[in-house]
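2024-03-11 09:14:02 DEBUG pipeline.ingest accepted 1 chain
2024-03-11 09:14:02 DEBUG pipeline.ingest length=337
2024-03-11 09:14:03 DEBUG pipeline.predict start
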Amino acid sequence: TVQVEAEGFENSEIAGIQVLPSVRAEQPVRLAFQAGAEFERLVIGPHTLWGEYPPKIEEAEVKPVGESGEIVLSRVVIPEYVVVHDGPVNDTTAQDYYVRYKDYIKNVASSEIYATWPDDTIRANVLAIMSFTLNRVYTEWYRNKGKDFTITSSTAYDHKWIRGRNIFDSISRIVDELFENYLSRPDVRQPILTQYCDGRQVQCKDRGWMTQWGSKSLGDRGYSPIEILRYFYGNDIYINVAEGISGIPLSWPGYDLNIGATGNKVRQIQEQLNVIAEAYPAIPKVGVDGIYGEQTKAAVRKFQNIFGLSETGITDYSTWYKIQEIYVAVSRIAELS
């Protein structure tokens, strides 16, 4: 249990935080101003690998066109937010929550697999979680049934999302690394609805689903993420990349930006860092000249320090998208004020 107090804010308490050996657990906490606020105590439910949850109701992995859940989007786009219905599909008392896509994936993965497993096992499971989620987004599965949400937190229908739970840094790092990806089959436009079970409490060996404990065993034996996925889903499954990312102004250039890099992508990063520096004064402002010099590298390094990234001063894939994310957030705050 963690209790948080800060002057001018209502106290907060989170019970049931899960801790694993040799992996950092990061607990997000949102404090309310005291004026009119009520004390909130969150209780984190058990992990799906040892708690009792309903098994997944089997569905077709590709949704047919012309039926409820037909394809309505023209391309696969990573959403900025998903709307999570915190309960079974038809539970009208359950609340809906707007959750950033990456935060949703990190929450589900932290709730459904162990962060101490091999990195490639975590990658395979994260890819399956993202592909399943993007199938719900792409087909607008629940909206076509008259619902106002993207996905549920019920394991009978979707994945286990637990409001307010802690995230593990090994999972967070891998989601940041892979979040543009999903799983495809040849000549199928939509992301595959990659269903799975744990393989111990619930068996799914005859369905062509991945088992989580089975994926752990393969990771221990040195299987790569795609080898793990193909072992369960077949040799025609492959990793695809989404065509766009909602809420992100600029796409990854496809290469790291470092000393000597020049051009519009460098100029854009410089401009964005200067906007972010207005809200985070520890980040030094840089000249906007389109040249990646020592000044820009120092600003990137300080940004990485503040936001928990490897302090290389190089704008790699993870740093690029973190700068985009913080730039959008800071810009919106500026607009509101």
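2024-03-11 09:14:41 DEBUG pipeline.report DSSP finds eight helices and 14 strands in the chain.
2024-03-11 09:14:41 DEBUG pipeline.predict end
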